[in-house]
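For reproducibility, we list the full input for the N-carbamoyl-L-aspartate complex.
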Amino acid sequence: MKFAGAHILSVDQFERADIEQIFSVADIMEPYALRRKVTRVLEGAILGNMFFEPSTRTRVSFGCAFNLLGGEVRETTGFKSSAITKGESLYDTARVLSGYSDIICMRHPESGSVAEFAGASRVPVINGGDGANEHPSQALLDLYTIRKEVRDKGRSLDGLRIAMIGDLKYGRTVHSLIRLLSLFKDLQVILVSPDALQMPEEHVEHLRQAGHQVLVSSDLTNSIGHVDIVYSTRIQEERFESSDEADLYRGRFRLNQAIYTQYCEPNTVIMHPLPRDSRAEANELDSDLNQNPNLAIFRQTDNGLLVRMALFALILDVVDQVELSSRPVNWYRQRE
Ligand code: NCD
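The corresponding predicted structure, in tokenized form, follows.
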């Protein structure tokens, strides 16, 4: 695809070569994300960061990624502080805000809303999550993480074995990830969820049509024995009619160190888009996994910066200039 000026709304836009391109630009971003070097390549540019649903990592990492490239961020969070509560349409909001920004990231509770917004926007729009539909940048950072993790263990994305666990019906991260994975070869995907929260059939069919093996299960321990990746997800309580309904499913698939040791292969990578629900009644990834070197959740969040920087650089067409406007950092850095 042509990235310059493009909206990023769905992973269906990408072919395998596009993914490779995003990942090679993400690799270039590492010294900037690690604060070894500074670049001001987007100096003067403004990101409109519009999040109409709760968000920590996606919102902050999009903002930091833009800042790390030298750009400025203007943020709107929640409907209450926006004129949408006065009845303003997405069309009008998009016309107005796209006059103030060079690029917009948006999260909204309704499926399809970000695409509708993009249709009226005068600048590129990145989907930061539209209801239960998609979360393309998360899927890209997940795939980037999977690639790095398995490469370190001598495997590649082709032939990958992955178990996706939890709320596969409403979880937009797994919807985007499963579609992105279908671009690779000979995958074995095990979909583990309560019966009522199974992966929508269209995504399962899409993967099968692409020649991959798909297994559906409602049993955790029988499903995680022979996989490279365990990708756990949160019950998406905000998509249920009532929290009582979500209570039926919370805590159904808990992974802790004892279960990991007993059932998983020793090198199985543990992932989660976060937030993990750490309340006692859910505790989907126990904190006793924090010392497990295969817990990749914070490598995922770190990689999110690289992938989001890559998207900005590609869409705003400055990849070739990043290096030109770079210099070493001049402040004290504790971490590496
Ligand atoms: C996810 C989301 O918002 O879809 N979070 C994220 O962006 N990393 C997953 C979730 O909220 O459960």
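The pocket of N-carbamoyl-L-aspartate is lined by residues 57-58, 129, 135, 138, 172-173, 234, 273-274 (CB under 6 Å). Residues 136-298 form a domain with the Rossmann fold fold (CATH 3.40.50.1370). Both points were considered when choosing residues for closer inspection.
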